[in-house]
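Batch manifest line 265
LIGAND: nickel (II) ion
JOB: complex structure
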Amino acid sequence: METLYRNNHEATTTPGTLSAETIASYRNNGFVHIRGILTPEEAAHYQAAALSAAKRLKPLSAGSVFDQLVNVWQEDEAMRALTLHPNVAAVAQALAGVPLRLWHDQILIKQPKKSTPTEFHQDQPYWPHANSANPISAWIALCDVPVERGCMTFLPGSHRRTDLPAQNLGDASSLFNLCPDLRWSPRVTVPIRAGDCTFHHARCAHMATPNVTEEPRVAHIVIFMDETTTYTAKHHVVTDPLGLEEGAPIAGALFPAVGELIQCR
Ligand code: SIN
Ligand code: NI
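JOB STATUS: finished
ARTIFACT:
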C-alpha cells in the first residue's frame, strides 16, 4: 500500500507509514496532526481549485465565521479528486480502525482580516446519524495556516463525551455551559503547513482561531462516517432532499465506501 500511494501521489504519510504511536495518539486524544497528506504541489493545485469553486458555486453559508461550500465533490471535477483522494480516505480508515464511507465534504474559507473564531463544538451532534461510533474528519490545509490565519485547537479526550447535544459554534460559552468540566481541559493548538492535515473524531471538541492575516484561509474538510451509519431523520442539508426513512442506511453512490475509493486506484 505504501508503494502504491508513494508512486501515485508522492505523499509523505500513507497508511503504510502511519506508526502504531500515531494511531494510538489519534484514538486516545481524538485528533492527530498528519504531515504531508498531500504534496506541496497538490496543495497549491487544490487551493486554486477551491478558490475557483468558491467563486462559482453557491455557498451554504457565508459570513464572519467562514464561507462554507458543502458537497463540492458532486459539482466540481477538480475538488472531486481531492474529496475522493485515496490516500486521504485510506489514512482516515487506518486511524478509525473500521470500514468508513464518505458523509460529505466542505470547503471552509475564513476571509482575510474580517473573520471571527469558530467557537468550540463537536461535529457529530449536528448530524442525522446513528450506528456511527468512529466518525473522522480530514481537515486539509490548502495554504499555510499559522495561528493568526485560523488553525484548529482541540480538547484532547473530549471525543469520549458522546452524550452532549448540539453546541453553537458562534457562541464561545455554548460547549462549556453544557459541559463545565471541559472549560478546564488542556487545549492543543495546531498551526499547520499547506498539504498537512489534522484528523479529528467528530466528537472531539474543536475551535478555529480568526484569520487576521491578509490572505484567505482555505481548508478542505473530508468527513467520513462508519460504513454502518443509519439515518435518524434529524434535519440536515445533505439528507433532507433524499427522502430516507428513519433507520435506513445512509449509503449508495452519494456516500461512497472507502473500500471502493481505495480500490479505484
Ligand atoms: C474551521 O475550520 O473554522 C472549523 C472547522 C470545523 O469546525 O470542523
Ligand atoms: Ni467542526
